[in-house]
Amino acid sequence: MADIIQLLPDHVANQIAAGEVVQRPASVVKELLENAIDAEASEISLIIKAAGKTLIQVTDNGKGMSPTDARLSFERHATSKIRTADDLFNIHTKGFRGEALASIAAIAHVELRSKQEGEDVGTEIKIEGSEVLSQEAAVLQKGTSVAVKNLFYNVPARRNFLKSDNVELRHIIDEFHRVALAHPGIMFSMFHNGNELFKLHDSNIRQRIVNIFGPKTNEKLVPVEEETEFVKIYGFVGKPEFAKKTRGEQFFFVNNRFIKSSYLNHSVNSAFEGLLRDGAHASYFLYLDVDPKTIDINIHPTKTEIKFEDEHTLYAILRAATRHSLGQFSIAPVLDFERDANLDTPYAYKNKPADVPNVDYNEGFNPFQEERTRVKGAPAFRKEKAGSWEGLYVGLESKGNNSPSEFSQVQFESDDEVPSFFDEKDTKSALRTFQLNNKYIVNGIKAGMLVIDQNRAHQRILYEGLLQSITIEEGVSQQLLFPLKLKFSTLEVAILQGLKGHLQKVGFMFSNLDHDEVELNGVPVGLEATQVSVVLEKLINDVENQVPDSHFSQSDLIAKSLANSLAIRAGVKLSSEEQEHLVNSLFACKEPSISPSNKPTFITMSSDDLDKKFTI
Asked: Which domains occur in the chain, in start order?
């Protein structure tokens, strides 16, 4: 029988490796930024075009590469970080597999320019689909520049799976944030389509966090610091009152490498137990320094998952350190049975005798004495003689049953009769509905009864109204007397910029939407100014969680998100008229039976169903 096992050609093996390492443009950004950091660069620039589909270029001022190293860097498993197998357990650098550049070059057009310090000329290499087109000497500055063009040009199926530019750009910004937060001592800059998105100068951790997520972040941060023989923990957690419904500001760094760990996330959340409102997530930026020999970072191609030698100890230390910081800065409530110092007597009054108040009164005053016998100086008091009270009723005796009384001409004031908005017939109709547990509306029908979920029903009503406003561009806006200024991170503002056109059709009027500030002159009718921040945060959260991928369009996403935020919640008491209006509006919708999230809005119970309940 013939042999059937064959060695794969290098270009095929590289494409297979690319499927693990390069999932989207953000994966390329991560690998190139980490290579620049390993090159000991102090300034790194990232240039993006068309969300990375057209161009991803990373330029650094690191130590550069020789012509031989520049060529070998595109070979599989070629690395300067590993010499023996034992080196895998003592890794201090970012990249060590030697697959990144080889995988990227297999699915894109790559141009590498590099020059070492002290050399007269550098090296320029051009590669397309793992094939080296040219390698020439070039006059360059110290450092390395890698330009990746036309990503997935030879794998059209993978390119078709890429999301919209807004979605891919958000993933790139996420990776940029992770690398920049892990290395605050390095200067980073980022450009997209010629526009500067970030300019981060070298700083400390707190300043780096504030520069990325906006000035308002500074007041939210609570420092965390703990050092043991097992681990050193430092960084910041967010105050509970600033917790958001999103998980966007949660970062773990182990030995300056961003990781994802649901186990450690649970540890931090348990430290916030009892301090967060339902549905809120705490922010944290925590850095852990551990012995490289106690962790394994080689369990995942992207190196974002780490296996710890003793997870239980780390869990306990992290929870205790976070809880201690919250208590130390008076964030967590504490029981104090000592007396309140504010209730103590001040020192100046401690031994001072009390002043007796002087009361001026007339001891001879007798209100029951007659005027002629009262004491001189006492106030006058007139007492009528006995029987004088009868004079008060003189002339009020009846003059006969047929004679009209003087009070018959008295007229009383009364409010003007205002016609009711609902006539008697409508009022009786409204009484057909009643609210159950401030959550369900029960309405009688011929065949039995109808039970409506008021929250889902209102979502359906708002959803169709908002979708119509976006489609026909007839959204109504209520102007604000004073502009409303809100603070968001640069990433959140970038998301709102992508949604600006649709939001304006709904009724949002933006006077400023730049960098980290949002200024509104108008909001949709019925939306209170105090709710705007919450509504926009919910919308940003839906977009960040890739909700648009599961919907037909961006318009559909905005309508669903806003409807969910503005709908009447369970627990809100409705008047009879409001109940009736909600029922009528629901059945005027095109799809009254399901909510925007495809859940039933009402159920019916027939008379036969009720009869069965009483059957013995």
From this structure: 10-200 (3.30.565.10), 208-328 (3.30.230.10), 433-604 (3.30.1370.100)
